Predict the 3D structure of the following.
Amino acid sequence: MNMITLQTIVTKRKDGLLVSELGKEVVMMDIDNGNYIGLNETGKAIWDMIDEPVKVSDLVDKLLAQYNIDKEQCSNDTLECLNKMEDQKLIATA
């Protein structure tokens, strides 16, 4: 499995997930393996921005416009979140 970088294009997996919003968080169930996954407010913000394929660096720019955080911290946190999502097979990459 490749690590996601700022140049990777990501999008959410379209099938096999039941997704429910609970306030500022998201809870999902992977139908294929029965795993439950929860995303906090920041994870939900990222999830909401990847309906369509997007380059990670562009995603970071969108998050920077929305949150008061420095670029390096935003990039690191976004990459960490996306790599966890990939580990759980929630997203597709190109």
Summary: Residues 9-93 form a domain with the Outer Surface Protein A; domain 3 fold (CATH 3.90.930).
